[in-house]
Amino acid sequence: MNASTSKRITLIGAGLAGALLATLLARRGWVVDVYEKRGDPRLKGYQGGRSINLALAERGRHALRLAGADEAVMAQAVMMRGRMVHFLDGRCDLQRYGRDDSEVIWSVHRGELNLILLQIAQEAGANLHFHRGLAEVDFDARIARFADDRDGSLHEAAFDSLVGADGAGSALRAAMSRHADLGERTEFLGHSYKELEIPPTPDGGFSIEPNALHIWPRGRYMCIALPNDERTFTVTLFLPNEGEPSFASVRDGAQARALFERDFADALPLIPNLEQDFERNPAGLLATLYLDRWYLDERAVLLGDAAHAMVPFHGQGMNCAFEDCVALAQHLERGDDRAAAFAAFQAQRLPNARAIQAMALENYLEMRDRVDDDDYLLQRALERELAERHPDRFMPRYAMVTFHRMPYATAFERGQAQRRLLVDLTRGHDRLDSLDWNAVDAEVRARLSPLPADD
Ligand code: FAD
Asked: Which residue windows are coiled coil (predicted)?
């Protein structure tokens, strides 16, 4: 049996995407070997990973359902109904994400999620190999070499095809680049992030509204906080790398306290270990990774962050990586020539990855600078009204991305058309009740085609 028709496959990385893909394939009878650089987190408790919790949305949940993991994951998820905006003067405003509690997102603990996915991958029959960091690949002989981080020993494994689920710093991508030009470029945002923690109240409760994603928008920078089921919140401070304030000007715990006293005063009493958290936790860089090519004939393919890392402001990196897994498993199952399956996977997913990468960048500006502007609030109000009046044609972009599974590229294009419409319809108005609704309805019908259904 040759590589194209065998059902053997080797995955690099047992993070979120690697563990999910292993499950999807093993459940369909594939012989799956997964090599992971770190030790088995089920033995020693989860170690590391920068973002402690993640927003899970419908795309991700759909993939989890297909893998039989949704129930276990949802058992520890916390519902987030909307953005709780914390204004500088201490006022708060909950901006709902969707129409009701059927349109929400979920905060999940990254470590717990990884543990669940590893467990179901193993139960599905995948062979998990820990302490095996991909070090080099001989693509001609189809031999991969792995290093054991405990003693530096090298181990070899033959492969038919490699799948790179080894994250933004992918070693497989680096090995593929030595063979072919992948058209790789990384654009740094010029902003970084640092994590802090809000502990539970003394009686063990949440110290702020649990069912919301909290945002403190401050123009060029912001803080957010997501709830954890153990009643803590993970706070993420996003600051530019240069300027005032920035990670260059706020360097130690005392300077962080001064920044919070001035700009995040209502958050300050909630973070008792601000100084220690700030000094102990490293600042993470934020960047977008673009590749023109994700595969090397039938021998290797990349997905998830290894193929298209993005900035985290739409909360879609993992959701997109999970969608990649479903798509790749489907292409592999069609039984085509494996190189053709990888080509079809790239053709389907690359334009969509580009679209969500662009929307994630745009969302940063919206979150830190727009959520408290008057024109933005008027457009949001009209958006809600149009979604009510024309549910078959108008859907807020956030809803298309978050609560539905239409291709990201479709959501991006429709979102641009809708934004132009909102700007045009609200021009010269500061209240919705001065609009001519007959003209508004006609304009919607003329400019927006009916929405596609989720497949
Ligand atoms: P990873 O999760 O990074 O997994 C890669 C795995 O490969 C790891 O287990 C690693 O140890 C292993 N590995 C690495 N190198 C090797 C090697 N050489 N050999 C073997 N194994 C290796 N996404 C969302 O959907 N919602 C959010 O709210 C969200 N928030 C985020 C907040 C922040 C601050 C950041 C930085 C990201 C956020 N993301 C979010 C994005 C999300 O974390 C990633 O998109 C997701 O983790 C990608 O999954 P992955 O499996 O491709 O990579």
From this structure: none
Residue at 97 is within a domain: no
Residues 176-191 have pLDDT tens digits of 999 999 999 999 999 9
- Integer angstrom CA distances of residue 90 from 85, 87, 102, 160, 216: 10, 5, 29, 59, 10
In a domain, 66, yes or no: yes
d(CA 240, CA 188) in angstroms, rounded, equals 11
Cα torsion for 318, 72, 230, 265, to the nearest 10°?
Answer: 30
Q: Given its phi and psi angles, is residue 272 left (phi above 0), alpha (psi -120 to 50 degrees) or beta?
A: alpha
User: Ligand 1 centroid to 30 CA: how many Å?
Assistant: 24
132-139 average pLDDT score: 98
* Terminal Cα distance for the chain, rounded: 34
When divided into structural domains, the chain yields a total of 3
The ipTM assigned to this model is 0.99
Task: Say yes or no: CB of residue 54 within 6 Å of ligand 1.
Answer: yes
193 in contact with ligand 1, CB cutoff 6 A: yes
Distance 321 CA to ligand 1 centre (A): 9
Ligand 1 centroid distance, CA of 281 (Å):
18
Residues 15 and 122 placed together within one structural domain of the fold: yes
Pocket test for ligand 1, best of 11, 24, 33, 37 (most atoms within 8 A of CB): 37
44 — pLDDT class (breaks 50, 70, 90): confident
Of 50-54, 140-144, 376-380, the poorest mean pLDDT is in 50-54
Does 1 have pLDDT greater than 80? Answer: no
Over its C-alpha atoms, the chain yields an Rg (Å, rounded) of 23
Average pLDDT over residues 46-57: 70
Check pocket membership of 35 for ligand 1, CB cut-off 6 A: yes
The DSSP bridge pattern shows strands 31-35 and 8-12 to be parallel
Residue 165 lies in a domain: yes
Mean pLDDT of the chain: 94
The domain in which residue 250 lies consists of: 188-286
Strand-strand pairing, 92-96 and 82-86 = antiparallel
The encoded tokens of residue 201 equal: 């109240």
pLDDT at 52: 83
Region of residue 191 (left: phi > 0; alpha: psi -120 to 50; beta: else): beta
- Ligand 1 pocket member 12 (CB < 6 A): yes
Query: Does residue 452 fall inside a structural domain?
Result: no
Determine the Cα–Cα distance for residues 329 and 346; give it in Å rounded to an integer: 13
CA of 384 to the centre of ligand 1 (A): 34
